[in-house]
Design goal:
Layout (H helix, E strand, L loop, with lengths): L11 E4 L9 E6 L15 H10 L7 E5 L11 H17 L3 E7 L1 H10 L9 H8 L2 E7 L5 H7 L4 H7 L3 H4 L16 E7 L8 H12 L5 E5 L11 H10 L4
Parallel strand pairs: 2-3, 2-4, 4-5, 5-6, 6-7
Antiparallel strand pairs: 1-3
């Protein structure tokens, strides 16, 4: 994979701490857009990052970045998650990052989880994947998609974007119940977040993920609240406040 093709040049840097002690820690945002929407870019988290910086009583003890990835139909799975890993790896190397936490919204949450439970057969460079996963301490999954089978059962018309992202989702998309045993031991923090007013995704996806985590007794925190419509959530002050109070690094 060509590095320049992964859209690393579109990475946004919203905040860098002054303290050298905190310079290696980073909270990294991954946007959604159903794998196809060019209007969803890393910049959608600019307001959220500003709310976090302004709402903190002291300097944030971690950097804030936002990354991009190529979209369908120009590419198909697994290129999206390969790009995410490539760009996380580049951030690690360019900024000497030692600890990562991911905030994924919508399909960004799907991608964040796919990084956490990565299928190694999908990646040309296991060294890069290992460099990312060994530093991954937490994931914040916001209004995400966790089962395509359940998604299309509830919203059959969503096949218009699923069919562009996957050649055959029944073969290419690994339902998360089959990958959860690959969670790395370094992943200490899992947060499941959903807006009650999300008009594009009901609670079914988040409830599915909650049940899955409970079934295998994996600790997690959940935060369900009115944070606006689906596309409003990444700019919501309640989400910024939740992140401020729950992002902790070992």
């Amino acid at each position: 994979m060509q590095v320049e093709e992964s859209r690393y040049d579109r990475t946004e840097t919203f905040y860098r701490p002054q303290s050298s002690i905190d310079i290696g820690k980073a909270l990294i945002f991954i946007h959604g857009g159903a794998w196809i929407d060019e209007t969803c870019t890393p910049t959608i988290f600019k307001q959220l990052s500003a709310l976090m910086a302004e709402g903190s009583k002291q300097e944030l003890a971690y950097s804030l970045f936002s990354i991009d990835y190529r979209l369908s139909p120009n590419v198909r799975h697994p290129v999206h998650v390969q790009d995410v890993v490539e760009n996380l790896y580049r951030l690690v190397k360019d900024h000497q990052l030692t600890s990562l936490q991911l905030v994924g919204h919508s399909v960004g949450a799907t991608l964040a989880w796919q990084v956490a439970v990565a299928d190694e057969t999908l990646f040309p460079s296991l060294d890069k994947l290992q460099a990312v996963r060994s530093r991954l301490q937490g994931v914040f999954l916001v209004d995400g998609i966790y089962s395509l089978a359940q998604l299309l059962d509830e919203y059959p018309n969503y096949d218009y974007f699923v069919s562009q992202a996957f050649t055959d989702y029944t073969k290419d998309f690994e339902e998360f119940e089959h990958s959860i045993d690959r969670l790395p031991k370094t992943l200490r923090h899992i947060h499941l977040i959903h807006s009650y007013r999300d008009e594009l995704l009901s609670l079914r996806q988040s409830n599915y993920m909650s049940s899955l985590l409970q079934k295998v007794r994996i600790p997690f925190k959940s935060y369900f609240d009115d944070m606006g419509l689906h596309d409003e959530v990444p700019r919501n002050a309640k989400l910024a406040n939740y992140l401020l109070h729950n992002v902790t690094f070992a």
